[in-house]
Amino acid sequence: MSQSFHRPFYTRNTTQPKKKEKEHLVAAQRIVEENEQAARKLAALLSIPGVGPITALTLLALSRKYADANRSQIVALAGFDPIQIQSGTSVHGKSRISKRGNREVRKRLFEATLSAARYNPSIRSIYRRLKEVGKPEKVARIAAARKLLLITHAVYTTGVLYRDPTEKEG
């Protein structure tokens, strides 16, 4: 009998996707490295605290596909644009994000805010401010994810490495 037969079922099924994900990540990075401009943009995105290789590659693909998009268009493409539910003068629902955009981008940014809220001072300040005024965890993370998307868009369009705006130049 093969040795994999004796491993528990959940171990066999969880190690295989992780291996495939790593292979895909390496292949994507190899493709990006072949294009000098894309490699510079990827390096700039990776300079942002809280943005890892998977998030950076996802955002690089979005930014390259919609290269001429402005800030509000990028937010809408990711589905972070707010919508107001209203019918006439008496029915007013809660504002929500539209979720009309790319689900993968939204998912990657939402996950990236976990580390960005710890290591990125710009994201940390907005996240803490919203939590201190009593906003739910999900609302604070969505706002932080939107802010992270805007930072990555600015870094991508300028091509300049991220620098914390609160740091003094010197």
What does this structure look like?
The protein is mostly helical and 170 residues long. It has one domain. It has 8 helices and 4 strands, in the order αααααββββααα. It has helices at 3-6, 9-34, 36-46, 53-65, 71-78, 103-119, 121-132, 137-158; strands at 82-83, 86-87, 91-92, 96-97. The strands form 2 sheets. Strands 1-4 form a two-stranded antiparallel ribbon. A hairpin with a 3-residue loop joins β2 and β3. The model has no long low-confidence stretch (mean pLDDT 85).
Write the layout of secondary structure elements.
Layout: H1 3-6, H2 9-34, H3 36-46, H4 53-65, H5 71-78, E1 82-83, E2 86-87, E3 91-92, E4 96-97, H6 103-119, H7 121-132, H8 137-158
Antiparallel strand pairs: 1-4, 2-3
Helix pairs in contact: 2-3, 3-4, 4-6, 5-8, 6-7, 6-8, 7-8
Low-confidence stretches: none
β-strand amount: under 5%
Q: What structural class do the secondary elements suggest?
A: mainly alpha
**Percent helix range:** 55-70%
* Secondary structure: number of strands: 4
Shape summary: globular
Main sheet: which strands, in order across?
1-4
- Overall pLDDT score: 85
How many separate domains?
1
Total helical elements: 8
Tell me the series of helices and strands, N- to C-terminal. Answer: HHHHHEEEEHHH
Sheet with the most strands, sense and barrel status: 2 strands, antiparallel
Please give the alpha-carbon distance between the first and last residues.
Answer: 66 Å
Keywords:
two-stranded antiparallel ribbon, about 170 residues, about 65% helix, two-stranded antiparallel sheet, mainly alpha
